[in-house]
From TrEMBL:
GO terms for cellular component: cytosol. Catalyzes the decarboxylation of four acetate groups of uroporphyrinogen-III to yield coproporphyrinogen-III. This is Uroporphyrinogen decarboxylase. InterPro entries: UROD/MetE-like_sf, Uroporphyrinogen_deCO2ase_HemE, Uroporphyrinogen_deCOase. It catalyses: uroporphyrinogen III + 4 H(+) = coproporphyrinogen III + 4 CO2. It comes from Azomonas macrocytogenes (Azotobacter macrocytogenes). Its main location: cytoplasm. The keyword Transmembrane helix does not apply. It holds the Pfam family URO-D. The gene is hemE.
Length: 353
């Protein structure tokens, strides 16, 4: 494989020295970019864009052509795994993702197949291979998956939910059935991420978007335990170098110590955590990724730079910090403001290294 020209993202995840703090953005290939909207229109719809390796590569590279980002992230969706389990994923305008079949009984859970990464999700693996080839060593490529709990909520609810009524009812009414579903998903996600690593992903992130909706006890039993199982099953070296693993639980600040003991290399932080406090709590166990409020990008450039400077100061000196937003960039952000953010991270962080 081609040697990396810029590996500061991977080095920061492993707490190795870097010249400046690396930066990337969750959803950096997305609707805030006019070139992304043009590619999506060309594809016809969102899932057609995901399933076309050439177009998925095109939109993955678009933000890198615009900004000096330190990593690319595979363009895909967390719900590709349940879709490959036969639930029939589709998207309704203004409504978000929907499944033609919801998982609403133990029998439905027992009938779910565990998808094969290459056969059932081969379009994702081909996208990873295409992106790695086209990147030609510019920056590392991040692969990803949703966490078992997060995927389960969409599968049981049949789509998005504000209160996770059906998922939580199943969790408390029939914990054995929920554990069976999560066990199948943990197997599927482990296989899926290992497939991405074989295809060329140089780091992977597990998105636990809805883990923070759980109680303390339920989070540990029904979310974190399955992410720990996935981390233990991942290929941690490929191409002669380590493959770092990032865990991101939105609203997960309560569990940083437990997450740091999961075996992951880094934890993603949302904007509700103070990064200095988080660094003190996890010590040298893991690197930290985050954690600017995405809505800061609606503010003026001076305010964006000031918030970047504040977070860098709160983290302090040394490596082990990957700058990111605390969640995905939102569609209405001015692309020029994203540029101010990225340049500010590089410019203002040099003094801390």
């Amino acid at each position: 494989m081609t040697a990396l020209k810029n590996d500061r993202f991977l080095r920061a995840l492993l707490k190795q020295p870097v010249d400046v703090t690396p930066v990337w953005m969750m959803r950096q290939a997305g609707r805030y970019l006019p070139e992304y909207r043009a590619s999506r229109q060309k594809a016809g719809d969102f899932m057609s864009l995901c399933r076309n390796p050439e177009l998925a590569c095109e939109v993955t590279l678009q933000p890198l052509d615009r900004y000096p980002l330190d990593a690319a992230i595979l363009f895909s969706d967390i719900l590709t795994v349940p879709d490959a389990m036969g639930l029939g994923l589709y998207f309704e305008t203004g409504e978000g993702p929907r499944f033609r079949k919801a998982v609403d009984s133990r029998a439905a859970i027992e009938a779910l197949p565990i998808p094969d990464a290459e056969q059932d999700l081969g379009y994702v693996m081909e996208a990873v291979r295409t992106i790695r080839r086209e990147l030609n060593g510019r920056v590392p490529l991040i692969g990803f998956s949703g966490s078992p709990w997060t995927l389960a909520t969409y599968m049981v609810e049949g789509g998005s939910s504000k209160d996770f009524r059906k998922s939580k009812a199943l969790l408390y009414d029939n914990p054995q059935a929920m554990h069976l579903l999560l066990d199948k998903l943990a197997q599927a996600v482990t296989s899926y991420l290992n497939g991405q690593i074989r295809a060329g992903a140089q780091a992977v992130q597990i998105f636990d978007t809805w883990g923070g909706s759980l109680s303390d006890a339920a989070y540990r039993e029904f979310s974190l335990a399955y992410m720990e199982r996935i981390v233990a099953g991942l290929t941690r070296e490929n191409d002669g170098r380590p493959v770092p693993v990032i865990l991101f639980t939105k609203n997960g600040g309560l569990w940083l110590e437990a997450m740091a003991a999961s075996g992951a290399d880094a934890l993603g932080l949302d904007w509700t955590c103070d990064i200095r406090n988080a660094r003190e709590r996890v010590g040298d166990k893991v690197a930290l990724q985050g954690n600017m409020d995405p809505t800061v990008l609606y503010a003026n450039p001076q305010a964006i730079r000031a918030e970047v400077g504040r977070i860098l100061e709160r983290y302090g000196k040394g490596s082990g910090h990957v700058f990111n937003l605390g969640h995905g960039i939102t569609p209405e952000v001015d692309p020029a403001h994203a540029g101010v953010f990225i340049e500010a991270v590089h410019e203002l962080s040099a003094r801390y290294h």
